[in-house]
Design brief:
Elements lengths: L4 H8 L1 E4 L6 E4 L3 E5 H13 L9 E5 L9 H17 L2 E3 L6 H8 L6 E4 L13 E4 L2 H8 L4 E4 L2 E8 L8 H12 L7 E6 L8 H10 L7 E3 L4 H9 L19 E6 L6 E3 L7 E3 L10 E4 L7 H11 L9 E4 L4 H10 L1 H7 L3 E2 L19 E4 L15 E4 L2 H10 L27 E2 L29 E8 L6 H4 L13 H4 L11 H8 L2 E5 L11 H8 L2 E6 L4 H9 L3 E5 L13 E4 L2 H7 L1 E6 L4 E6 L4 H9 L2 H6 L4
Parallel strand pairs: 3-4, 3-6, 4-5, 6-7, 9-10, 9-12, 10-11, 15-16, 15-18, 16-17, 18-19, 21-22, 22-23, 23-24
Antiparallel strand pairs: 1-2, 2-8, 5-20, 13-14, 21-25, 24-27, 25-26, 26-27
Helix pairs in contact: 2-3, 2-5, 6-7, 9-11, 9-12, 16-17
Length: 641
């Protein structure tokens, strides 16, 4: 039987296990990336292992999230990251060099390689033919130490593209079209491979937009073939030697095949407050716009921003609209400057922001009260922008630019034609803002500020748990609900005790104190619990507050792994209807946890009602050992493999 692209890469990197769907496989990791919002903890975790040097082919620490320095906290974290990278063999991408995924795509990604990153949008690398996974910081730390990355072997989906995109219809619209088909839960447990004759017309930046947005489907990762389009992009980056051709076998089998005719698509928008709440842009022309933000790791390439400049050229942003543009990297900003497109953007009245994540993670530029913000980003979760009652729509750069000019959500296909945005024959390459590590790390002193607090310790799991349900939440709870981002909170990412006061603040401001009072607690959630960011803080902070178990209808992949790594037991209802039977404040009793983990089923007694509720526990033997040890770091220190 033929193999898919992902199966070929996994087979070449298999350390242990089999590639049978649903089984656990250990993969050798070639490259890792971290960003500063999650990276500080990842390196604190790496330091606890006592390994003198990273063992990957390449590891890079990027600074792109916490770039606003309103106090000493972010600057101290950046200083720590630079020093710890120098000591342990990690390259350091300085603040201002760009967003991790954009820079990695440009300068470091290689077809056929494996990559894990402490950011959920690491699958962006699939646009180059990489097998790239978002992961928690502990998993990245273990991989940097030479350990394998463990995954539940996914199903394989194929999206077969035919036709070609019409003018002003974009890769973002392709992603939104698939979100409308599958929903934010539809890719869970699957790798999505993109193929068919339609991919020949998609550039690497366009492919990267699509694989980036695959994260919002809940997919394990997404991947494109490595073909002549890939070779041209790498040649333009001066990296043609990194090219390796990759394609699936003609007789490869897929669990599901989805057909999309690109020529039938039209501009789309994800309406508040979910990426899968998709509508045609033409149906939203009655919506007045207050703010437009263009950029993020999804749509900040030279190609994206050159198109925006062409639409804005010679025109002025509508008086009631604030337009902000974040180039994805220093390379993108340089190319815009060289071509004259930057002058066109500035002349329109746009505000130029730093080459960083910025507004996408609530780091500045929050909308006005109740404001409508059009964003070319990947998430529009409630409150993520920093303004809880903001109405955030996800759109393409072309739709964003058109709407900025009119002040209303505007279908860009109504605009006059613009010249196609061709990629440069040769990009301006300058890696001077990527600092290599010291040759002798033993001579480097790691610099720590007062905001960098010791890593919290979890506890081994006992055989019985008797604890209160300190919070019950509904479906599609995101990591932004659990542990919000934003300019007020992100600077404390290395200070778990301080962050604890913000945990679940969006859902219930009293949760942190109630969890502390309970000392040991249980959370109950609905379907797709923990979707969104890979931030392990959404597991570590509840662990710090005494949460020992999360009982949910279903989990998002990365968050379930992060819970296990933090020493929190994830359980699912055997019958989803049982979710309605448990109320917040009830006491649940779990007995025979050790045997139950091995059997895959743990009985849960609701002490208040006397009802026994069966719960499922889908754990590998390795994950069971991690929980018995009290988390991945304890397990690793004990010599676990």
């Amino acid at each position: 039987m033929g193999k898919t692209i992902a199966q070929k890469i996994m087979e070449a990197h298999l350390v242990s296990g089999t590639l049978t769907p649903g089984s656990e496989a250990a993969l050798r990791i070639d490259q890792t990336l971290t960003q500063d919002a999650t990276g500080t903890l990842a390196y604190l975790e790496f330091e606890t292992m006592g390994i003198p040097r990273v063992k990957t082919e390449l590891s890079i620490a990027y600074v792109d999230h916490n770039t606003l320095q309103c106090g000493f906290e972010n600057a101290d974290d950046h200083r720590y990251l630079q020093s710890v990278a120098a000591k342990y063999g990690v390259y350091f991408s300085r603040p201002g060099n760009g967003i991790c995924h954009q820079v990695h795509l440009e300068r470091f990604g290689k077809p056929g390689k494996t990559l894990i990153g402490s950011d959920s949008h690491t699958p962006t690398g699939g646009g180059l033919g990489m097998l790239a996974f978002g992961a928690g910081g502990m998993d990245v730390a273990v991989a940097m130490g030479g350990g394998a990355y463990y995954i539940t072997v996914p199903k394989m989906y194929k999206v077969h593209l035919t036709g070609a995109l019409r003018p002003f219809v974009t890769a973002k619209d392709v992603s939104l079209a698939l979100l409308r088909i599958l929903s934010v839960k539809g890719g869970v447990g699957a790798i999505i491979e993109w193929g068919g004759p339609g991919i020949a017309g998609l550039t690497v930046p366009e492919r990267a937009t699509i694989t980036n947005m695959g994260t919002e489907l809940g997919a394990t990762t997404s991947i494109f073939p490595s073909d002549d389009v890939t070779r041209r992009f790498l040649r333009a980056q001066g990296r043609e030697a990194d090219f390796v051709p990759l394609e699936s076998d003609p007789d490869a089998r897929y669990d599901r095949v989805i057909e999309i005719d690109l020529s039938t698509l039209e501009p789309l928008a994800a309406c508040p407050h979910s990426p899968d709440n998709v509508a045609e842009v033409r149906t939203l022309s009655h919506v007045r716009v207050d703010q437009v933000c263009i950029g993020s790791c999804t749509n900040s390439s030279v190609q994206d921003l050159t198109k925006v400049a062409a639409i804005l050229k010679g025109k002025t942003v509508a008086p009631g609209v604030s337009l902000a543009i974040s180039p994805g990297s220093r390379q993108v900003l340089t190319e815009l400057s060289r071509s004259g497109a930057l002058a066109d953007l500035l002349a329109s009245g746009a505000r130029l922001l730093e080459c960083a994540c910025g507004p996408c993670i609530g780091m500045g530029l929050s909308p006005n009260s109740g404001g409508v913000s059009l964003r070319t980003f990947n998430r529009n979760f409630l409150g993520r922008s920093g303004t809880k009652d903001a109405q955030v729509y996800l759109v393409s750069p072309e739709t964003a630019a058109a709407s900025a000019l009119t002040g209303w959500i505007t279908d860009p296909t109504t605009l006059p034609p613009i010249c196609p945005a061709a990629l440069p024959e040769r990009f301006c390459t300058d890696d001077s803002a990527v600092l290599p590590p010291a040759e002798d790390g033993s001579q480097v002193t790691v610099l720590r500020g007062p905001n960098i607090r010791p890593f919290p310790q979890s506890r081994p799991f006992a055989d019985t748990l008797n604890a209160q349900v300190v919070l019950k939440v509904g479906d599609n709870i995101t990591t932004d609900h659990i542990m919000p981002a934003g300019a007020k909170i992100l600077p404390y990412r290395s200070n778990i005790p301080h962050m604890a006061q913000f945990c679940f603040q969006v859902c219930d401001p009293d949760f942190p104190q109630r969890a502390r009072d309970a000392e040991e607690g249980i959370l109950v959630g609905g379907a797709n619990y923990g979707q969104g960011s890979s931030r392990e803080h959404a597991a570590l902070v509840p662990m710090y507050l005494g949460i020992r178990c999360v009982l949910a209808v279903s989990f998002a992949r990365i968050h379930a792994a992060n819970l296990i790594n933090a020493g929190i037991l994830p359980l699912t209802f055997a019958d989803p209807a049982d979710y309605a039977k448990i109320a917040q404040g009830h006491t649940l009793r779990l007995t025979g946890i050790g045997d139950g983990m091995a059997a895959g089923k743990i009985p849960v007694l609701d002490v208040d009602t006397g009802e026994m509720i069966p719960a499922l526990c889908s754990l590998s033997q390795r994950q069971q050992r991690i929980l018995r040890s009290g988390g991945l770091l304890n397990y690793t220190r004990e010599g676990g493999q």
